[in-house]
Specification:
The protein is α/β, with parallel strands linked by helices. The chain contains 18 helices and 19 strands. The strands form five sheets. A seven-stranded mixed beta sheet has the order 5-6-2-7-8-3-9, with helices on both faces. Strands 16-17-13-12-19 form a five-stranded mixed beta sheet. Strands 15-14-18 form a three-stranded antiparallel beta sheet, with no helix packed on it. The chain is flat and about 80 Å long. The structure holds zinc ion (ZN). The site of zinc ion (ZN) has 6 residues, from helix 9.
């Protein structure tokens, strides 16, 4: 068993070390999952000792049967782990296939040298202390030691308030721009968002509220603490011991459904106090495995492994499951709301109407979001390509999803009416930041045109027994939200907030603020022009208008030229459509085979009736793509046919196509 120690050491370097390195840089991943010191120590023990130890023990058991087989097994795994180390270093520096081949050669060469030369084994044995040093460096790194340190017990605040405590209903939507709710008079567009308007009629709308950060990990903590976020801190109770929940937990029963933050001591997000440590640890390890796969996989192949940069966990869930999860979180929150003799704080942070765009106003889901997926430039980071049509079509999808959010708000209002809690409750509906759709600009990083849509957040507040609506133009920041609720509830605390209550601020003084929503802004004007004049949003993509829509394919004048080849993305979804299912194939997308690189007009027919017309888009991979929403009622139960007509640049008539 001469190779037992080298195997243990190399497995540590190949598996534990890269994971530790990544997690120490991104503590938010652990923050949302770690319950306390026990969890993080167990996690490190599994990575550093249990997993490498497993391979050593396996080799030992094989040796017991056949010494030669055990030896080959050990050398084989040493070769694999060495190759993985080499691959982490080489990937991205050369084509994937070369990186993999070269790493393989390095791995084999190393294990041959190790088997041959005692001096190599001696050198590796000298690295044994690293088995302990690697986890120690991780556990004591500045971002991780907070999970262990006993100094970070949440402080118990002293509250001075006399009963009765009014129930609190506090809902944080994610990525909801307040500007998208507005009509040309900066009032809530009643036609599109009837439930937001209904609540605004009975509450105070602070319509010039701006976020203090466009990043969720910073903006949600700002809302929950009344203070500016700490740069680089993980959004958990270790970093933010003074927050809404620790402030009220001695007096209020907490019904809290967090999505990204972990602000209640020893209660990770998405769990309750009864979740056993084994279940929590399994979830952490599953997500860690997804992260590890992303660390070792060359960029060319990452498409086939779970993405870890779009959510804060549950990486292995199918896309559909993840979507259901965010809706599930909302319904858990809704179900938990009940009249109680104890004062309750009902809180939810729901990842809606956040990207991806998948909901129609009715709540039916369509698969994937090809337009938004294709519409981002190659640089990544959510920068739109320089194409007006793509940003308009994506904004249309987003507005439809916001109409679904309006429907959810309607469910909440109905529940509050039903339980008779509406009148006495403090109701607070807010968003952490917005999003923008402007050609060539980022969707979340404030730049020249997109700033207003990203920075303006929603802040609707109904105080106990408030009956009339009010719109205020005070200059409000999201850090003012918590001090304002405390003021409204007449709860006094010695804690200092960086924000201030805006309940009694002087409006005239702050009206001069530059943060007032500007309806003349190009983004606002474009939205009004494309969507603003209608009571309801068109169920199809709004442009281009074409006389073909609504006609039968046989009525359309067709060019006699050769047929064009069209490949649909996921053509099977149009067969055996079940109208009672929560999914509807309303997004029709595909590729056109063509040599031209100019824009084409694509008419989409469902069951022979033209239901949408869209523009094609030349992708970064030089493929001519198209995608458009068709109305839900285009489909029949069972099999549906899709026809695509294509109009080349400068032609007046459509060409027929063979659709695959
Ligand atoms: Zn957010």
């Amino acid at each position: 068993m001469a190779q037992a120690i080298p195997l243990f050491v190399i497995a540590n370097i190949a598996i534990a070390q890269p994971i530790y390195e990544l997690l120490a840089k991104n503590p938010a991943f652990l923050a949302a999952k770690i319950g306390g010191a026990g969890d993080i120590l167990l996690f490190a023990a599994i990575l550093s000792f249990l997993i490498p130890g497993f391979f050593v023990l396996l080799a030992k058991s094989i040796s017991a049967l056949s010494v030669a087989a055990g030896r080959w097994f050990q050398l084989g795994f040493i070769a694999i782990f060495t190759a993985v180390c080499a691959l982490i270093f080489l990937k991205g520096q050369m084509p994937a296939i070369w990186a993999i081949l070269l790493s393989g050669v390095v791995g084999v060469l190393f294990s041959v040298l190790l088997a041959r030369f005692a001096s190599v084994r001696f050198a590796i044995n000298c690295l044994t202390p690293f088995i302990f040093i690697i986890p120690l460096v991780f556990l004591t790194s500045s971002n991780i030691r907070q999970f262990i340190s006993p100094n970070h017990q949440a402080e118990i605040p002293t509250l001075a308030q006399s009963p009765p405590y009014n129930p609190i209903i506090f809902l944080v939507f994610d990525e909801l721009p307040a500007t998208f709710l507005m009509d040309q008079n900066r009032e809530i567009n009643r036609g599109l968002f009837p439930n937001f308007a209904k609540l605004a009629d009975r509450s105070t709308w602070y319509r010039n509220t701006v976020t203090v950060s466009p990043s969720t990990e910073e903006s949600v903590p700002a809302i929950l603490t009344g203070c500016y976020p700490i740069k680089g801190a993980s959004p958990d109770w270790h970093s933010y011991p003074r927050n809404l929940f620790t402030l009220l937990e001695s007096q209020y029963q907490l019904n809290v459904f967090q999505s990204v933050t972990n602000f209640i001591p020893n209660l990770p997000a998405g769990t309750n106090g009864d979740t056993p440590i084994a279940v929590r640890m399994l979830a952490i390890l599953k997500d860690t495995a997804a992260i590890y796969l992303n660390v070792i996989t060359p960029p060319e192949y990452t498409g086939s492994i779970p993405a870890v940069n779009q959510t804060w966990g549950d990486f292995w869930g199918s896309k559909g499951e993840k979507e259901e999860k965010r809706l599930h979180r909302f319904h858990e929150f809704l179900n938990a709301i009940a009249r109680s003799h104890r004062p309750t704080l009902n809180f939810a942070h729901v990842l809606l109407p956040h990207d991806p765009m998948e909901y129609l106003p009715s709540g039916k889901r369509y698969q994937d979001a090809p337009l938004s997926g294709w519409g981002y430039s190659r640089e990544g980071g959510g920068r739109w390509i320089n194409d007006e049509w793509v940003t308009i079509a994506s904004e249309h999808q987003y507005l439809l999803q916001m109409q679904f959010v309006d429907r959810l708000l309607g469910e909440l209002l109905a529940k509050l009416d039903q339980t008779g809690m509406f009148d006495s409750a403090v109701i607070l509906i807010t968003s952490d930041h917005g999003i923008a759709f402007w050609p060539g600009e980022s969707n979340r990083k404030p730049e020249k045109y997109n700033r207003q849509d990203i920075e303006h957040a929603l802040f609707l507040l109904k105080l106990p027994f408030q009956h009339s609506g009010q719109i205020r133009d005070d200059s409000v920041k999201t850090i003012d939200i918590l001090p304002t609720i405390m003021d409204g509830l007449k709860i006094k605390t010695a804690w200092q907030f960086q924000g201030k209550s805006v309940l009694n601020s002087s409006e005239t003084q702050s009206m001069a603020s530059l943060q007032k929503v500007d309806v003349r802004a190009p983004t606002f004007q474009r939205r009004l022009k494309v969507f603003g004049s209608v009571k309801s949003l068109p169920s199809i993509s709004p442009l281009p208008e074409d006389e073909a829509i609504g006609k039968n394919v046989s009525e359309i004048p067709i060019d006699k030229g050769p047929k064009v080849e069209v490949r649909l993305l996921d053509p099977r979804q149009f067969l055996a459509v079940d109208l009672s299912s929560p999914m509807i194939p309303a997004m029709v997308a595909g590729y056109v085979k063509t040599n031209s690189s100019g824009k084409m007009l694509i008419a989409i027919a469902v069951n022979k009736i033209i239901r949408a017309v869209t523009y094609s888009l030349l992708s970064a991979r030089r493929e001519m793509r198209f995608a458009a929403l068709v109305p839900e009622d285009s489909f029949v139960q069972g099999d549906n046919t899709i026809d695509i007509l294509v109009k080349q640049d400068g032609r007046s008539e459509y060409l027929q196509s063979n659709v695959h």
